[in-house]
Amino acid sequence: DDEQQYEDTAYGNEEIGPHTDGTYFEATPGIQVFHCLKPATKGGGETILVDGFAVAEQIRSQNVADFDLLTTAPIEHHYVEGGSSPSNAKIYSCCSNKPVIEIDHEGMLKQIRYNPYDRAPMRITSTDDIIRFYKAYERLSKLVNDTKNQLEISLKPGNVIFIDNFRVLHARKAFQTFDVCKCDLEKLETEPEELSIRSLFI
């Protein structure tokens, strides 16, 4: 197998389920930019999008207790680099006190942080609390993986889509090659002239 191997699945070509990116960063990337340079040579490569806010509202209407737990329980995420060699492994861990669903003081949705791939070990010590959390998390997982809540699209060469990483979960089917770029919402709002498509992909 001559294909380059990556520890971060974002830079590989395997299938990945719905998630948001950068959950282990204190400042989560605000904008995801997907630019299709060439089609998958062996089929696949579809992009799947999920409106995380719509899913969160479904949970709020179905089970308020689960919604309240997902908006208050602090969940830690991490990114492990060099894990194949324990002596060289580095762990980057942030957002230890950030919930899966973030709301403002009026109960309005602000951000979704959902990434099972980057979940760190739970720090909840109560068995009852762990069970309650996983039941709520399972409800969320089933909804984001429900095809009724998903939009599947096939990007063509030259197509570019901008995704709100605070709200929209993305997934992908296996494909060959791609480039990825991320930027902060604040930079997009304050310095849009510097974020041309050309500069994003150089």
UniProtKB/TrEMBL annotation:
Pfam families in UniProt: TauD (PF02668)
Record-annotated membrane-spanning stretches: none
Listed cofactors: L-ascorbate
GO cellular component, as recorded: mitochondrion
InterPro entries listed in its UniProt record: AlphaKG_dependent_hydroxylases, TauD-like_sf, TauD/TfdA-like
Oxidoreductase found in the keyword field: yes
Listed PANTHER family: GAMMA-BUTYROBETAINE HYDROXYLASE-RELATED, TRIMETHYLLYSINE DIOXYGENASE, MITOCHONDRIAL
Name assigned to this protein: Trimethyllysine dioxygenase, mitochondrial (inferred by orthology to a human protein)
